[in-house]
Amino acid sequence: MEPFRTLTSLAAPLDRANVDTDQIIPKQFLKRIERTGYGDFLFFDWRQTPEGKPIADFVLNDPRYEGAKILIADKNFGCGSSREHAAWALSDYGFRVVIAPTFADIFFSNAGKNGIVLVRLSDAEVATLLQNAQKIPNYQLTVSLEEQTVSDGRGFSAKFEIDPFRKFCLLEGLDDIGLTLRHAAALDTFETKHDEAGWLKAK
Questions:
Q1: Is the pLDDT higher at 82 or at 47?
Q2: Directed axis angle between helix 105-113 and helix 85-93, to 10°?
Q3: What are the residue boundaries of the structural domains of the chain, listed by start?
């Protein structure tokens, strides 16, 4: 997992509330066994018509937001089923930060474990960012995890809260496997002693 400290990026506005995980990554794409390749199917049903034609006014199809690594959304982002694939799809597409007033709990956990910084701001602050991203060309935000701030260099600045343990993991680039591997030496010692004890008992 790539460490996260500070990111300055174009911000894409998704002015929708209650964005559920089946819209983030529809169920028909959950059969893959890899964690990669899901970005192509992010918001699949919103990006194209049933005939496969791009929907021009959807934010990810708008060339103004090409390359955005920050997504701004309305409240209750990531509700619905607990599929971790939703976090994989956002990450694989290139998003490192999602800003919203609230997030669904399980999605919040899954996203953090996959290197995505979820920023909770007030309804009013998010409304301002959505409006700015829609109206100001090349609107960029800077998200500092170390300082726990979001700013735009135009006068907007806000602080956000984050669990200290999750912050540590994101700063260090540690997922669950990475956390375990930090104790690799102790685990090796335990296994060696366990094997030796079993061998002695067998004798």
A1: 47
A2: 50
A3: 6-172, 176-203
Q: Under 8 Å CB-to-CB from 87, ≥6 apart: which residues?
A: 107, 110, 111, 113, 114, 116
Q: Which amino acid is at 50?
A: P
Q: Any idea which of 17-31, 87-101, 134-148, 186-200 has the lowest mean pLDDT?
A: 186-200
Q: What gap in Å lies between CA 95 and CA 70, rounded to an integer?
A: 6
pTM: 0.87
- Count Cβ neighbours within 10 Å for each residue of 17-48 and write b for 16 or more, e otherwise: eebebbbbbbeeebeeeeeeebeebbbbebee
Q: Give the count of beta carbons closer than 10 Å to the beta carbon of residue 106.
A: 17
CA distances from residue 23 to 31, 112, 145 in whole angstroms, order as listed: 16, 19, 28
CA dihedral 12, 36, 148, 177 (to 10 degrees): 170
What integer is the mean pLDDT of 93-99?
Answer: 98
pLDDT confidence of 181, banded at 50, 70, 90?
low
Tokens of 80: 């619905």
Q: Is the dihedral of CA 27, 32, 36, 40 positive or negative?
A: negative
CATH number (2.40.160.210, 2.30.250.10, 3.40.190.10, 3.20.19.10) of 6-172 reads 3.20.19.10
20: Cβ contacts below 8 Å, ≥ 6 apart: 78, 79, 80, 81
The pLDDT of residue 1? 84
Q: What is the mean pLDDT of the chain?
A: 90
